[in-house]
Design goal:
about 425 residues, alpha+beta, Rossmann fold, 2 domains, 7-stranded mixed beta sheet, 24 strands, binds adenosine-5'-triphosphate
């Protein structure tokens, strides 16, 4: 199991402005969390890294950003209206509700017995249109994949991609989870980063294997410890209704080994279902062979909140430095919410502050995630930056005024080196 307790992570996130309970001043809203100033930077970095690796750096990928609200017919065709449900049980005594597959025979709250298991659809229903009665019922999307499938033809007609190719999307999804829990692990409003990778039917296994490799490449890049990740081959009968093969990538969370990401072979289920329900031909013409067929699809699905939680758990470190225990986040530079912090040694010396502002301005232009800190002694400032995972701190002192050198301090080792400002820019830009 990952070492730090959830209490430590939750408390650090609240204290330092990463993640707060949703609607907190009103007593919260179960299954919702708000990202604070540092959390939103971290989250944006995680998404940007994913988008860069899987869309921008490749030639076979196309991004979309589809509407969250979709015509309800899409969710009927995809099988979600009928089948996107979890088994629900209610305690006869205290009336609390649980997911049947997450509890034993008795109510964990009061020991009462449960009534019969019934199926609970997890989609949030909503009304589109201003007039009561004639408004159309639809759903907040429970996964981003739907917005990809309905745009398959648009992307093919406008981009003319050759198979194999993928369509990627990052966005919000909503699930009315029976029992949201474990901080941001199981929430009702979540973000997904999903790819539908379209292939020739005979090639699906090769691409499934390739995407398995890509998942690990992302885990390394984002900073999730591989030793804490395990593959689970999801057996027949337990897979989603559309899947013929699924691997869950599970992570050793402090509350157990649980799904982090999924990789599914969805066959031609979705395109065929949407073609049948919409009456629009969603087949693909292979220009070389002149064959027309419905592509099959491999779907790697990454949850953003679970990524953030797993990488915080992977990064959280306690050690001893200068005879004191310290807490720091060993975040990869790509995702760290602050890349570098700039300190004037003393805040009441105008010439120092002026010089430090100059360095800060240059760095801020080069790396917008640069922070200014002149509060308290240098040791305290280092600790504060360590705790939010800032890889480097730069201090401007009296020597800087003489020779244009600064002190660069490394988060992980605590080592300090003296170097000219020119070299500093070179080092931080690399
Ligand atoms: P679980 O079995 O944990 O409910 P799932 O199998 O329903 O998850 P998928 O439908 O495969 O999940 O969703 C794809 C990804 O979206 C998951 O791997 C996870 O990262 C993320 N995800 C799904 N549901 C939630 C949720 N309620 N809160 C946070 N992330 C979620």
């Amino acid at each position: 199991m990952a070492e730090p307790s959830m209490e430590k992570i939750v408390s650090l996130c609240k204290r330092r402005g990463f993640i707060y309970p949703g609607s907190e001043i009103y007593g919260g809203l179960s299954g919702t969390w708000d990202f604070g100033p540092l959390g939103v930077e971290l989250k944006n970095n995680v998404k940007a890294l994913w988008w860069r690796m899987f869309v921008q750096e490749r030639e076979d990928m196309h991004g979309v950003d589809a509407a969250i609200l979709m015509n309800a017919k899409a969710w009927e065709a995809s099988g979600h209206v009928e089948g996107f449900q979890d088994p629900l049980v209610e305690c006869k005594k205290c009336k609390r509700r649980f997911r049947a597959d997450q509890v034993e025979k008795e109510c964990p709250e009061c020991g009462g017995s449960f009534g019969a298991v019934r199926q609970f659809n997890m989609m949030f229903k909503t009304e589109v249109g201003a007039t009561d009665g004639v408004a159309a019922t639809t759903y907040l999307r429970p996964e981003t994949a739907g917005g990809i499938f309905v745009n398959f033809k648009n992307v093919v007609d406008s981009q003319h991609p050759k198979l194999p190719f993928g369509i990627a999307q990052i966005g919000k999804a909503f699930r009315n989870e029976i029992a949201p829990r474990d901080f941001i692990f199981r929430v009702r409003e979540l973000e997904q980063m999903e790819i539908e990778y379209f292939v020739k039917p005979a090639d699906w296994q090769t691409h499934f294997e390739a995407w398995k490799g890509e998942v690990y490449r992302y885990l390394d890049a984002v900073g999730i410890s591989r030793e804490l990740v395990h593959e689970l081959e999801v057996p027949d009968g337990e897979r989603a209704h559309y899947s013929e093969r699924t691997i869950d990538f599970e992570f050793d969370f402090p509350f157990g080994r649980k799904e982090l990401y999924g990789l599914a072979y969805r066959t031609d289920f979705d395109l065929k279902a949407h073609a049948a329900a919409s009456g629009v031909d969603l087949s693909y013409l292979d220009e070389e062979t002149k064959e027309r067929f419905v592509p099959h699809v491999i779907e790697p699905s990454f949850g953003l909140e679970r990524t953030v939680l797993a990488l915080l758990l992977s990064a959280y470190t306690e050690d001893e430095m200068g005879g004191e225990t310290r807490t720091y986040l060993k975040l990869n530079r790509a995702v760290a919410p602050v890349k570098v912090a700039v300190f004037p040694l003393l805040k009441n010396k105008p010439e120092l502050v002026k010089k430090a502002r100059e360095v800060y301005t240059i760095l801020k232009k080069m790396m917008p995630q640069t922070m200014w800190d002149d509060n308290g002694n240098i040791g305290k400032r280092y600790r504060r930056q360590d705790e939010i995972g800032t890889p480097y701190c730069v201090t401007i002192d009296f020597d800087t005024l003489q020779d244009d050198t600064v002190t660069l301090r490394d988060r992980d080792t605590g080592k300090q080196e003296r170097l000219p400002i020119g070299k500093l820019l070179e080092k931080l830009a690399s």
